[in-house]
Amino acid sequence: MSNRLAVFAVVVAGLSLYTVYPSDQRSFLTSLSTLLLGFLIGLIVAETPLASPIQELCGLTSRHPDKVGLDIIHASQEHEGKTAKKQLDQRVMYGLQHAFLNLEVTGWWFNMGLWDRERVPTMRFQDACRALVEKVTSHLDITSSSHILDVGFGCGDQDVYMAQLHKPARITGITIEPIQHHAAQDLVKRTPTPGTDIHLYVADASKLPQFLESTPDLFTPSTDRLFSHVVSIDSAYHYNTRAAFLKNAAQVLQPNTGRLALADMILAKPPPTSGLGLSIFKTVFNAMEVPYVNMTMMDQYRQDLEDAGFIDIEIECIEDNVFSGLANHIENQTSRFGGMVGPGVKWTYLALAKGLWWLDRSKWLHFVVVRARNGPRPSSS
Description:
The chain has helices spanning 3-20, 28-45, 51-57, 65-76, 78-86, 125-137, 157-166, 178-190, 208-214, 242-252, 275-287, 298-308, 323-337, 343-362, and strands at 147-151, 170-175, 197-202, 229-233, 259-267, 310-317, 365-374. The chain is α/β, with parallel strands linked by helices. It has three domains: 1-61, no CATH class; 63-103, no CATH class; 125-374, Vaccinia Virus protein VP39 (Rossmann fold, 3-Layer(aba) Sandwich). Helix 7 links the parallel strand 1 (147-151) and strand 2. Helix 13 (323-337) runs antiparallel to helix 14.
């Protein structure tokens, strides 16, 4: 018997006695819950078949590096993987620790992507993300003198790609997440973008005019303090509120010629009207950090754009090439990498995949690409 198994036995035995001889004030349910707690504690510290996943879930252990590689084998060769795990106690020189050397990070992309339905099983996530950026920013008349404001730039990959694709004079990006700003700054420093200056800031999408006022070096002295383009890819539905963001975007865009481009989500069906159904609906969106007020249908969405001052509005629904493609990719990644990610991350993404499959089947949401032109400045009279 191993030392940990002995500890397990002692803990369970001690708490069993505590349960068998309860005091007069102690209820049966309290005693039973104490026994179960003791059993759980014993599992955490013991070398039992259930110990490893419980330890990982509680964050009390790190995976043996060989187990990481073996989990990859296990995903495709179940019997061989299990057999190999039983042999971990044998002395090894390298095992599968070299799995680390084969990992390749090609970016920190994070949008839902535009997926080619015929190539989904083999399509790379980064390629789908680039395809969405290209879809949103094409036909915007971006030139070598353009100054783009990218609202919600993620980790900067899309700004580097836009610079390489369109070669504007300048891209200014804002995000509300400091950790993503840090990662993006690092990417921009080590990635050449000839002809395009990229400058990234931590700022609030709902306060664009204030951002311009507080950042005097955004523009060169010879230009007006307005952008030629405002872009927001797969993030505007998070803004509190999106309608306010649209009005602010119009304020910081050049009148008549300034262009807006979004990848966004709206409702495809009316929300539930019953009290319980509506409560569940609001709870789901709150959990996704999406203000419920942003979940409007097509007519209201177009009205919000018009109320903000935009004209020549184009709205294209592309959800058939978004939700199912990302769901398929998440499931493939989970199978491919097995235990290389923690249980919390794994379960989060598996739940996301299930939700995306449901969205694909139920047709509750539209994923849209929006292009619009800023109208003339309202008269001051």
